Structure formats: structure tokens, C-alpha cells
Amino acid sequence: MTSLPKVFWRAAAVLTLAGCASSSGGTDDSTRRQLVAQADAWDQAIVRKDRAAIEANMARRFFQIGGDGSVTERAQFIDELVDPDLVIEPYTVEGLTVLLHGDTALLSATTRMTGRYQGKRFDTHYRYIDTYVREDGRWKVLAVQITPIPAPRSEK
Description:
The protein has 156 residues and is of the alpha+beta class. It has helices at residues 6-13, 28-48, 51-56, 74-81; strands at 58-65, 71-73, 86-88, 92-101, 104-117, 120-135, 138-148. Strands 1, 2, 3, 4, 5, 6 and 7 form a 7-stranded mixed beta sheet that branches. The radius of gyration is 15 Å and the shape is globular. The N and C termini lie close together (8 Å). Mean pLDDT is 86; it is low at 13-25.
């Protein structure tokens, strides 16, 4: 597989999107359902390149740690996601878990993402963790970290 640009790993990290519904506390189950729906909406907004929906889900001090260890701040992360050279195809999230701890939630799963960057096809598989915090009464993603999952030897 060819080496993917940093913009891809930054885009890959963004696995949970827009909803941003207010949370009134509620039960852990209702909060988990809300976060899962919000994450799904964020993923869809990323595929659509809906800048407003992407931004609405992100905390003011958002940052991302890419698969190569790089750190990207909020503005650059958003700009790279909506870059016209990046086309992300709809993708699915597998094995999503939501862990709650007060006003913090950790969402973790794996995904396979495909698309094109500068006309070149990519196909990746990675594990991620998104850290959400309750900010001004709403859940927002504060940090994202991804780890590439290597293809089994038979697929290389």
C-alpha cells in the first residue's frame, strides 16, 4: 500500500460527527444512545464535507493525534477534512463502545475507510478513540486518536 498523506490520517481520526444535542443528564443508557447517534451523524457530515456540522461537534480546544504520532489542531483538522482533494466514501464503524465518566465519554471502535486523495485510491483499517466532554451543556469531541491496523500478511 502506498504511504498516505497526513491529511488522510487526520480525516480518519474524525470518526464521530454532528448531532450535538443537549444532554440533561439522563440515564447512562440514554446518554450512550445520544453519543452513538451523535457520532454517527458526525461520520455522515464528514463524508458530506458539511463544515458547519463538523465544527458543531467539536470542542473549542479540539486536537487530534494521527496514526503517525502527529498532532493537529482544530482549524487545520477541519480544513483538511473539507479539502476538495479528499473524498471519503461512506464507511461503517465496528464494535463501538462508549465509556462514561461524569462529563467525559470515551468512544472507541474500528473502521475501514476507503476513498481517494488527489485522485489516488486508499483503503485503510484502524482503531480509534474519541474523547467527548460536556461543554456548555452539550457533548463535544475534544480529542481523537487513531492507530492503523496492519493488513494480515496474506492481504499485503
